[in-house]
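Hi support team,

I've been running sequence recovery on a batch of backbones for a student project. Most finish fine, but this one hangs at about 90% for roughly twenty minutes before it completes. I'm not sure whether the input is malformed or the queue is just slow. I've pasted the structure tokens below so you can try to reproduce it. Let me know if you need the job ID as well.

Thanks,
M.K.
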């Protein structure tokens, strides 16, 4: 069993170091990396990119997809898991009919800037909808948007806002309050859980990767590394 110290070495506390660890372990294991560069201007890092590797046969019928960094700041958790699985050769003996597709930092801007959302303030989990159809509404969020985006951290306006949100929770319950915030909304560009008004770079890039790598698969399982939700090491079906 690996020591705690060796496991900690898989993880980094920023985007660039996480990417470097991922690229280094791929180089050490002679795994080819395909990089998709995001050309959005960003002063925090030299380059923003989503890096992709495939382990296993090209015509495998079963494809396991492991993504990290959908919510940018959570990349460091997922990246460490990806690096660790590669370092420990967890996929060295895959069945002939199974392949693994590892997608590192699908939201590199969010990772580099420690933001949940992307460069367009879009929560990627809300961006995978059909923009040719009428977008879903969120009446609950409309009611609390101004309060959530209160411009003051303290003072009379903040006190009034806190009271408004407390009353909303009391009337609608915690589930109703969380649902209003987390269900996604498509009206307020600078609001929380904004779903966007078109497919984002990350959306288009992910779809391109999946179309290229999953065309021969009959069964696809996608697991996204998240953090801060549910019990330790717990998997949620969404």
């Amino acid at each position: 069993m690996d020591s705690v110290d060796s496991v900690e070495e898989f993880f980094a506390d920023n985007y660039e170091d996480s990417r470097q660890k991922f690229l280094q372990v791929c180089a050490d294991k002679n795994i080819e990396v395909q990089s998709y560069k995001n050309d959005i201007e960003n002063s925090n890092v030299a380059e923003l990119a989503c890096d992709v590797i495939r382990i296993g046969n090209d015509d495998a019928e079963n494809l396991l997809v492991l993504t990290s960094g959908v919510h940018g700041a959570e990349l460091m958790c997922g990246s460490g898991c990806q690096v660790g699985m590669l370092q420990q050769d967890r996929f060295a003996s895959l069945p002939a009919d199974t392949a693994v597709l590892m997608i590192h930092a699908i939201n590199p801007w969010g990772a580099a800037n420690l933001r949940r959302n992307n460069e367009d303030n879009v929560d990627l989990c809300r961006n995978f909808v059909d923009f040719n159809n009428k977008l879903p509404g969120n009446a609950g969020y409309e009611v609390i948007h101004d309060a959530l985006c209160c411009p003051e951290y303290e003072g009379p306006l903040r006190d009034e806002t806190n009271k408004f949100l407390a009353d909303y929770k009391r009337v609608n319950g915690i589930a109703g309050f969380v649902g209003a915030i987390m269900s996604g909304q498509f009206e307020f560009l600078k609001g929380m859980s904004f779903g966007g008004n078109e497919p984002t770079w990350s959306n288009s890039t992910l779809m391109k990767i999946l179309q290229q790598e999953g065309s021969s698969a009959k069964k696809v399982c996608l697991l996204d590394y998240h953090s801060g939700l549910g019990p330790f090491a717990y998997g949620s079906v969404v």
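--
Follow-up from support: It reproduced on our side and the slowdown came from queue contention, not your input. Residues 127 and 199 are 6 Å apart (CA to CA). No action needed from you.
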